[in-house]
Amino acid sequence: MAGLIGIGLTGILGHQSALNTTGNNITNANTPGYSRQEVVFETQQGQRTGAGTVGKGVSIVDIRRLANEYLVQQVREDSMLTGEQQALNSELSRLDNLLGGESTGLNNALNNFFASLQNAAEDPASLPQRQLVLSEAKQVVNRFQALSQEFIQQRESVKTQMQQGVKDANTLLKNIAGLNLAISESPGLAQGRMPNELLDQRDEALRQLSELVNIRVTETEGSQVNVSLSNGLSLVVGNDAARLGTEGSAEDPTRLEFTLTSGGRTLNIDEQITGGKLGGLRRFDNEALKPAFDELGRIAIGISVSVNQQHEIGMDLEGDLGGLFFNDVNDLAVQRSRVVANANNQLPRDGQLAVEITDSTKLPAGSWTLQFSGDGRSFELIDKASGKVVNQGRLPDPVQSEISMPGFNIRVEGGTFNAGDKYLIQPSRNAAESIDLQVTREEDLAFASPVRATSGDQNAGTAEIDQGTMLNVRNPFTGSLLPGFETSGELANGPLTISFAPDPSDPSALTFTVTGPPPASTPVGTPNQSYEPGKINTVFSGDPAAGDDYQGFQFKLTGKPAVGDTFEIDYNSNGVSDNRNAELLASLGTANTLNGKSQSFTEGYAGLVEDIGVKTRQSQFDLEAGKTLLEQSTAQRESVSGVNLDEEAGKLIQYQAAYNASAQVISVAQDLFNTLLQTFR
């Protein structure tokens, strides 16, 4: 009877454990990372008799955790990809909505500004029309500054998310190290009895960590795991966890870089952070936000330079030359702000550099690193986007010099440069933030041209002269006013007279000469220039290096003049109804002034919107694909490790029946024992 009671007891205890395990599965059906467990039964060694072996019941050899390491790893990898794409897509969508929004984008402001100039050209003396131009110009400035501010806010948001992500990662790393220790110290580990709950918690922590950054997991002794970055840098070794961190970039103080502290040493690991949320945020900053800053700034510089150049060669309502419309893109402080010295440069760190915009039509959007080597005078200019060296050479002694690039020059103003010193060159990064309106009065808008031409009253020929083309009022080489514009409100060397005379070498031909005001009537430019009837004859050169033949304007002569015919060029005094410069300003809205004169301002902005839109759509596709892969890998893991409530309910009934049957075995044994006792009474 004792044997029968023992057999029944093993059945009760065994199936009680099975019921407990099944109940635990059911209650943890919705616990993240939980792996289904099952009881492994084994027959106890029987008692050998002459008639054979008599069984002694059942024992539980293991409560097994149902997990497939390959599927767990696949879930981690897909979680990493999805985490990266979620972060990237979220930020790209925000940027795309900002740039492409009708009320938040730049297109409407640009179109309204140039439309107001076109309207003003129809009535250039109208103060209300001029006020509208100023109002729309202010809206352009506001939109540039607002977009730049939104970029800055998004940059700060990304930095905040990076810092929070690092905190979350450190918490997980610490938990993983602690779980490693707890698992290695778990009783029965040497006998193969695994702490299932601790293993589940560690796998879940690893999965959550993979959502933040790309990691590699390696099993070691004592059922512990080592965790490292994709390049092998250790994050967790046994029960020791490294610490991730962020710090301001030495190259660009507005950005954050990732660090790793382990064993008292801190390493910069910015390049090694890939995948996961942190990798997605870093990709967004490098691949979308920085280029958007640069491209928006390039458009702001293009508009400022083009409008300023045209406005400066016009005449305002009070008869003065037009001044700056927007702020000067080559203000000395602005030039110097385009260069950022690396915080790790060697002492004395007194190198002084500036970046001058030389041709906005050729200016590329981007950033470069100027790196010195050797004795500190050898340099390389490296494109940040491609990593390629685009310029190299040596600084002279003394170092004052210029490094020329398409659209801009890097001016070395002085100071000491050491081997390894680096400078970040950002020609357009902050231009949208700093753009501002310089014209404040309606009367200061220069809608007229400062010169005009008239025909002599006694002209006998059929020659005609156009109203001229303004080129500049300043010498492009020195920046000083040209001789004709040194006196406000008049043509200082005028009026200029164009007169025709027979060609001494060919009496049937004519020449023309431009002379200054009487009584001296000094020739201005080359005298006795040949006149060709039937062709367009240009008065004055368009080459600033042509000496007196360059006056900052040109006129065209057509027709057949007679000997003694004259034309007069003078200052456009009282030209309040002249709209020539207003029309030229309005035409800038459709003129190709960017990308080597292949794009207009609106096309340049449309290119930025399109680029961000394409990246956003691609990230959306990648996110959907990543979610699909994660759903598939999660479903595969759940097929092995997940709790099926129907299956567990069936097991409950099965184990309950076995438990009841085992109890019945004990009851039978008790009845037999009672019968035996009754026999001896």
Give your account of this protein's structure.
Helix 2 packs parallel to helix 6 (276-312) and helix 4 runs antiparallel to helix 5 (196-212). Strand 6 and strand 7 (234-237) form a beta hairpin. The chain is elongated. The longest helix has 58 residues, at 127-184. It has 681 residues and is of the alpha+beta class. 41% of the residues lie in helices and 21% in strands. The model has no long low-confidence stretch (mean pLDDT 92). The protein has a five-stranded antiparallel beta sheet with strand order 12-19-14-15-16. It has eleven helices and 28 strands.
Nutshell version of this structure?
This protein is α+β, with helices and mostly antiparallel strands and 681 residues long. The protein has eleven helices and 28 strands.
What's the end-to-end separation, in Å? 18 Å
DSSP helix fraction: 40-55%
Based on secondary structure, the structural category is: alpha+beta
Biggest sheet layout: 5 strands, antiparallel
**Rg from Cα:** 42 Å
Shape: elongated
Q: What percent strand?
A: 15-25%
| Spans where pLDDT lies below 50 across 5 or more residues | none
Strand segment count: 28
Q: How do the strands line up in the largest sheet?
A: 12-19-14-15-16
Number of helices: 11
Mean pLDDT: 92
